[in-house]
C-alpha cells in the first residue's frame, strides 16, 4: 500500500490491527487471571448446598473439568465468529449483557452529549480569561471535584437531592416497564454525578492544551497583527489544540462505558459494570470475558478515534516526512 | 404508663437479646407484665399486629441477592431472592412451614407414613389450578420432584431427593413416595424451596418456560438481576390470600443504597439491615427494625483429626475459654443470642435447652490439665467474610483464651475463596452456618460420621442415635434421641458456637404482617402471600 497516497487509510488499518492484538492479549490475561481466582462457579452458585458430589456434577456439566487452554481456545474460536457463547447458567451471554449494555450506552451518551460541549466551552473560557475570576473559580472547583472519590460525590448528590430536597429518586433502577420520561427522571442523579466527575478532567485539559499553544510564536504573530484575544483563541489556538483535547475526551468516553461500576452500584443502575461484578462473584467466566471484551473495545475504539482526529487535524502528522 | 413495668420490660428485652432468656420464656414473662397493665413498645420483630389483614395494595421489597443468571429452573435457585419471588410467589410446594415452625399442607391436603417412615402417601388438595387453568394432578408432582433426581442433576435439592427411591402416582390425586431408608422428616424436607411444583410436560419433564405455577401471584415481569414484579392470582387456593394486588422485588446490592431506598420511600422493606444503621432506623417514626430469630449461627470449627483438637478435653477447654457475652456486646452490638456449642437453634423443633456456656478460666484450665497440658497454642483462621465480625470476634477470643493459658494465633485468610480453601481445610476456622430446617438434616449434612461438611468428627453413639431417631415416628422417643445427641455435640463436638443471629430487616410501618417465621429468610420465603399493606 502506498503510504503517502492513503495516509489515513494505512494509519487506520495499522491501528485497528494493533487494537485487535491488544484485545487478544486482554482476553488471554482475563481468562487466565479468572482461573487463578480462588473458588469456582460451581461452589459459588451452590452456596450452602455445595456438597462435593453436587460441585463435581456441575463442573462436569459445564466442561470445567477440561484443561484451561482447551476452554480458552474453544471460547476464542467462537468469539472470533461473533458468538460469545452461553453463560454458565445456560443463558446466551448476549441475552444477559445486551439490555445492560444498552443501559450503559444510554447513560454514557446522555452524559457525553452534555459534558463534551460544556467542558470544551468552559475550557476555552478559562483559557481566554486566564487568571481572571471565572478561570480561578473553575480551576479550584474542578480540582476539588477531581480530588473527591466518585462514590463520595454520588452519596453527596443522593443526600442533597434525594434525601433532603427530595427532588429526584435515590434509585436509578430503570426497568423496561417504565416509560421513557420516568427512565430519564431516574437517571438525573447518576448523570449529574458523572458530569461532576468527568467535566473537571476535560475542562482542565482543554484549558492546558490551549494555553500551551498560546505561547507559540504564531499566536504571538497573530496578536501583533492586531487580532482580538477571542479571535486568537478560537481561530489560532483551538484548532491546534484539538489533538490533546480529543485524547482526553476519548479517555473520558471510555470511562463512561467501562469505569462507572461504583456509580452503577450506588444508584442501582442496571448497567454492564454491575453485570460484571455479578459475573465475577459467581465466577461466570463467559460473561466476565464478554464484559472485558466490551470494555477493552471501548477503550481501544475511542483512543483510535482520538488518534485519527488528532492526526487529521495536524497536517504534520498526516504527511510525515 | 407504669414506670417500673417499663423498666422490667426493657430488662426482659435486653436479656432476650443477650440470650439469657429463651424466646418462649420471654413471651411468657412479657405477657405476664402486659397483663399487669404495662403498655410498652416491643422490638419490631416481636410486635404483634393487632389490625386484621387488609386486601389490596402494592408492596416493594429491596432485597440484595438477585443475579443476572436467575432463571425458572428450580434446581438452579440458591438465593432468598429466587426463593421468595419464585417459590414463595409463583409456585407452591406440597407442604409449607408455618410461622411457628410447624409443617402444614399446601398443595397436599394430608399425608401419612407407613410404619418405619419409609413409604409415604401425599393426597393432593382438590380444585387447585395452575395460572393457565390446568388443574393440578399427581403427575405434576411426580415430574416436579423427579426433575431434581436425574443422574446428572445439579440441583440444590439433590441431597434431599437422593433419599427417594421411587415416586408413584396412585389415581390422579395421590403420590406415593418410597425412601431408601425411613425418614420421619420427609414432609419438612419437601418444603425446601427448590421442590416447587411445576406443570408436567406430556413427554415427561416440567414446563420451566411459562412461569405457570399454582402460586398466589402470576409473574408479571422478570428482569434477571434487576427486578421481578408479581400480580395477584384471583384463583388462589387459600382463603383471602394473597392480600396484596402487586409485589415488586427490587435488587439493591449496596447496603447504603438499600437504606436510602427505604428512607426515601422507594421500597417498603429492606433485607439484612446493616448493624450500624439499626439506631438510625429505630429513631425514625416511619420504619421499624425487624429481628426474626433464625437458624443462622457463627462458629469456630475444629478438625478433630488434627492435634490438639483430637483431644476432647482440649476442645472443652477451648469452648470454656470464650467469653461469648463480651463478643456479643462488643462485636454484634447486642444483636445476637449466645451460643452454647449446640448448633440446634432454639426456634427449631427438637431443640434441647441446655444451660448457657459461660466463660470460665478455671474450667478451661481444668480441662487442659486433664489433657496433660498446662498451655496450648493453636492457629485460628478467619476472614472478613467468614462471618460478619469474625476477625473482631477472634481478636477478643484471643484475649479471653490467653487468661487460661491458651495461645490463639489469628491467621487472617483471603476473603476470596475462603469457603473453598480454608473451611474444612484449615484445622481451626470461623464459619457461618445458615442451619437446616430439621435437626436430622442439620446432623446429616454436618455432624454424622462422613457427612459432607463434617471436619473429621466421629462419635459412634451419635451416629447410632441418628439412625434410631430418623425413622422413629414417636415424637417423644425422637426427642429423647435428639436431646442426647445435642448433649454429645456440646460436650464432645467439634464446633464452638459463638452466637445465633436473627434475620434483621427494616420495614415501613405501612406494611402489616402476623407472626414471622425464621426457619428460612423472608418469613420462610412466604412473605408476599402473608404480608399486607395497612393504609
TrEMBL record, chain A:
The protein's name: Peptide/nickel transport system permease protein
SUPFAM superfamilies with a match to the protein in the record: MetI-like (SSF161098)
Subcellular location: Cell membrane
Main location: membrane
InterPro entries to which the protein is assigned, alphabetical: BPD_transp_1_N, MetI-like, MetI-like_sf
PROSITE patterns, sorted: ABC_TM1 (PS50928)
Pfam families membership: BPD_transp_1, BPD_transp_1_N
Transport recorded as keyword: yes
TrEMBL record, chain B:
A GO term for molecular function: peptide transmembrane transporter activity
Any one annotated GO CC term: ATP-binding cassette (ABC) transporter complex
Superkingdom as given in the UniProt entry: Bacteria
An annotated GO BP: peptide transport
Domain Solute-binding protein family residues, every copy: 103-428
Annotated SUPFAM superfamilies: Periplasmic binding protein-like II
InterPro entries: Peptide/Ni-bd (IPR030678), SBP_5 (IPR039424), SBP_5_dom (IPR000914), TAT_signal (IPR006311)
Major localization listed first in the record, in broad terms: periplasm
Family: Belongs to the bacterial solute-binding protein 5 family.
Protein name as catalogued: Peptide/nickel transport system substrate-binding protein
Amino acid at each position: 500500500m502506498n503510504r503517502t497516497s492513503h495516509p489515513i487509510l494505512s494509519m487506520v488499518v495499522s491501528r485497528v490491527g494493533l487494537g485487535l492484538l491488544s484485545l487478544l492479549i486482554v482476553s488471554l490475561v482475563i481468562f487466565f487471571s479468572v482461573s487463578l481466582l480462588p473458588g469456582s462457579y460451581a461452589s459459588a452458585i451452590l452456596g450452602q448446598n455445595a456438597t462435593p458430589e453436587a460441585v463435581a456434577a456441575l463442573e462436569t456439566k459445564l466442561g470445567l473439568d477440561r484443561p484451561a487452554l482447551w476452554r480458552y481456545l474453544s471460547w476464542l474460536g467462537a468469539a472470533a465468529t461473533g458468538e460469545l457463547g452461553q453463560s454458565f447458567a445456560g443463558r446466551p451471554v448476549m441475552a444477559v449483557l445486551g439490555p445492560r449494555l444498552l443501559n450503559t450506552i444510554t447513560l454514557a451518551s446522555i452524559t457525553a452529549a452534555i459534558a463534551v460541549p460544556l467542558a470544551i466551552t468552559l475550557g476555552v473560557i478559562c483559557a481566554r480569561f486566564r487568571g481572571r475570576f471565572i478561570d480561578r473559580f473553575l480551576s479550584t472547583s474542578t480540582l476539588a471535584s477531581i480530588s473527591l472519590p466518585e462514590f463520595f460525590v454520588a452519596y453527596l448528590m443522593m443526600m442533597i437531592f434525594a434525601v433532603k430536597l427530595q427532588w429526584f429518586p435515590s434509585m436509578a433502577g430503570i426497568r423496561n416497564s417504565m416509560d421513557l420520561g420516568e427512565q430519564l427522571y431516574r437517571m438525573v442523579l447518576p448523570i449529574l454525578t458523572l458530569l461532576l466527575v468527568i467535566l473537571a478532567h476535560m475542562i482542565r485539559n482543554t484549558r492546558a492544551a490551549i494555553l500551551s499553544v498560546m505561547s507559540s510564536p504564531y499566536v504571538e504573530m497573530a496578536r501583533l497583527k492586531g487580532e482580538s484575544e477571542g479571535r486568537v483563541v478560537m481561530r489560532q489556538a483551538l484548532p491546534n489544540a484539538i489533538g490533546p483535547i480529543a485524547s482526553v475526551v476519548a479517555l473520558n468516553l471510555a470511562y463512561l462505558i467501562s469505569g462507572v461500576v461504583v456509580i452503577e452500584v450506588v444508584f442501582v443502575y442496571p448497567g454492564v459494570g454491575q453485570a460484571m461484578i455479578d459475573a465475577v462473584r459467581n465466577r461466570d467466566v463467559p460473561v466476565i470475558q464478554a464484559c472485558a471484551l466490551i470494555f477493552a473495545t471501548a477503550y481501544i475504539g475511542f483512543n483510535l478515534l482520538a488518534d485519527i482526529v488528532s492526526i487529521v487535524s495536524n497536517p504534520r502528522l498526516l504527511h510525515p516526512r | 404508663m407504669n414506670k417500673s413495668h417499663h423498666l422490667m420490660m426493657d430488662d426482659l428485652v435486653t436479656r432476650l437479646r443477650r440470650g439469657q432468656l429463651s424466646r418462649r420464656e420471654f413471651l411468657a414473662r412479657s405477657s405476664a407484665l402486659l397483663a399487669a397493665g404495662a403498655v410498652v413498645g416491643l422490638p419490631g420483630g416481636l410486635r404483634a399486629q393487632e389490625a386484621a389483614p387488609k386486601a389490596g395494595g402494592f408492596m416493594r421489597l429491596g432485597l440484595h441477592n438477585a443475579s443476572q443468571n436467575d432463571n425458572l429452573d428450580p434446581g438452579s435457585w440458591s438465593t432468598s431472592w429466587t426463593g421468595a419471588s419464585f417459590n414463595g410467589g409463583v409456585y407452591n410446594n406440597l407442604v409449607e412451614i408455618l410461622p411457628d415452625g410447624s409443617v402444614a399442607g399446601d398443595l397436599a391436603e394430608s399425608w401419612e407414613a407407613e410404619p418405619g417412615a419409609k413409604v409415604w402417601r401425599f393426597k393432593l388438595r382438590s380444585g387447585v389450578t395452575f395460572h393457565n387453568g390446568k388443574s393440578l394432578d399427581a403427575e405434576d408432582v411426580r415430574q416436579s420432584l423427579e426433575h431434581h433426581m436425574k443422574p446428572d442433576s445439579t440441583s440444590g435439592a439433590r441431597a434431599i431427593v437422593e433419599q427417594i427411591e421411587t415416586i408413584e402416582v396412585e389415581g390422579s390425586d395421590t403420590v406415593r413416595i418410597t425412601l431408601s431408608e425411613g425418614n420421619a422428616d420427609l414432609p419438612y424436607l419437601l418444603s425446601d424451596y427448590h421442590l416447587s411444583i411445576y406443570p408436567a410436560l406430556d413427554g415427561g419433564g416440567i414446563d420451566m418456560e411459562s412461569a405457570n405455577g399454582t402460586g398466589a401471584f402470576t409473574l408479571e415481569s422478570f428482569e434477571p438481576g434487576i427486578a421481578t414484579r408479581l400480580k395477584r392470582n384471583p384463583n388462589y387456593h387459600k382463603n383471602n390470600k394473597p392480600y396484596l394486588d402487586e409485589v415488586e422485588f427490587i435488587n439493591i446490592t449496596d447496603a447504603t443504597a438499600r437504606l436510602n431506598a427505604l428512607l426515601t420511600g422507594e421500597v417498603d422493606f429492606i433485607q439484612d439491615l446493616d448493624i450500624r444503621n439499626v439506631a438510625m432506623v429505630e429513631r425514625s417514626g416511619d420504619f421499624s427494625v425487624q429481628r426474626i430469630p433464625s437458624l443462622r449461627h457463627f462458629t469456630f470449627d475444629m478438625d478433630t483429626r488434627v492435634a490438639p483438637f483430637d483431644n476432647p478435653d482440649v476442645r472443652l477447654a477451648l469452648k470454656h475459654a470464650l467469653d461469648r457475652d463480651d463478643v456479643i456486646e462488643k462485636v454484634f452490638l447486642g444483636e445476637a443470642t449466645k451460643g452454647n456449642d449446640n448448633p440446634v437453634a432454639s426456634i427449631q423443633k427438637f431443640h434441647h435447652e441446655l444451660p448457657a456456656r459461660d466463660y470460665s478460666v478455671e474450667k478451661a484450665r481444668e480441662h487442659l490439665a486433664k489433657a496433660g497440658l498446662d498451655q496450648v497454642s493453636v492457629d485460628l483462621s478467619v476472614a472478613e467474610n467468614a462471618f460478619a465480625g469474625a476477625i473482631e470476634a477472634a481478636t477478643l477470643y484471643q484475649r479471653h483464651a490467653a487468661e487460661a493459658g491458651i495461645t490463639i494465633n489469628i491467621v487472617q485468610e483471603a476473603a476470596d475463596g475462603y469457603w473453598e480453601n480454608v473451611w474444612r481445610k484449615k484445622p481451626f476456622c470461623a464459619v457461618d452456618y445458615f442451619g437446616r430446617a430439621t435437626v436430622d438434616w442439620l446432623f446429616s449434612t454436618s455432624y454424622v460420621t462422613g457427612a459432607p461438611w463434617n471436619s473429621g468428627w466421629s462419635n459412634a453413639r451419635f451416629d447410632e442415635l441418628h439412625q434410631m431417631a430418623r425413622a422413629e415416628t414417636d415424637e417423644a422417643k425422637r426427642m429423647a434421641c435428639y436431646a442426647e445427641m445435642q448433649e454429645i455435640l456440646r460436650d464432645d463436638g467439634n464446633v464452638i458456637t459463638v452466637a445465633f443471629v436473627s434475620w434483621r430487616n427494616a420495614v415501613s410501618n405501612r406494611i402489616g404482617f402476623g407472626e414471622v417465621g425464621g426457619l428460612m429468610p423472608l418469613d420462610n420465603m412466604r412473605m408476599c402471600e402473608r404480608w399486607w399493606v395497612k393504609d
